[in-house]
Amino acid sequence: MLTYVLSPVFNGLFSAMVIFLFATGLTLIFGILRVLNFAHGGFFMIGAYVAFSLVSLFGSTESMLSYLLVSVASGLVLGGIGLLVERFVFRPLQKVDEAYSLIATYALLLLTEGAVKAIWGVSFHSAAAPSALAGIYIVGDLFMPTYAIFIILLGIACYVFLEWVLQHTETGKLTQSIASDPWMAQMLGVNVPRFYTWIVVFGFFLAGIAGGLLLPNQTISPNLASTFVVQAFGVLIVGGMGNIRGTFLAAILLCVIDSFGSVYFSEVPGMFFYIAMVVMLLLRPEGLVRGARL
Questions:
Q1: Which CATH number is 3-283 given?
Q2: What are phi and psi of 116, to 5 degrees?
Q3: HSE toward the beta carbon, residue 168, CA cutoff 13 A
């Protein structure tokens, strides 16, 4: 009987950490620049394709070290792309209404999908998890894949690290100050435009490394951009629009509820994520964590 509770919780935590890893860069960029990057899924997709290309070029990700190195390399490539996007897309968008940023980043999403089709084609690709993550743990009737455990622990570690940096370091305090009042930070001598540039680069780096780390979790195709993006925006909104802690909590809450819903109402899988999202927005429209960016 306990398995009917633990299994949905475990599956929900796994889905939550997948979405959180995907949404972290999106949350940082919106929390500081206030640019709602609709193309984030497209750059995550490019990160996955870059990782797949590196695997194809240099061999499989059988070893844990090669899997991690490929993911970091993918993040670095996306960070370089983020430098260009910030200069030519995000920087001009800061001077216009947010509606224009939605249109521009959606166009950017279409551009990434076209680029993927032109470079990698429309075929489906996949890569295996490293051998160290290919096993499974069995506790009673509960089956826990090693890869899922790794992603759960990685997502929690990522949240703890970002929370620590934001709350307990000078860089984090500076980040929150710029997010709250960039004009005052500029008056105090902070180079806000340069800071924005590095935030975008870091956000894109996170998207790229997430694409590499989550490569064994899905088959990649030009449709991958839309796989997580709606749910990512869901946890971003429910969490409190640009708040790392809120995004983390919202991902867990929505995904665990959806996991239970998919078990007991298997004819409508995924529906309870959106039901829970609507209910949370009705009960707490300001978000789970309100009143603070990041």
A1: 1.10.3470
A2: -60, -45
A3: 5
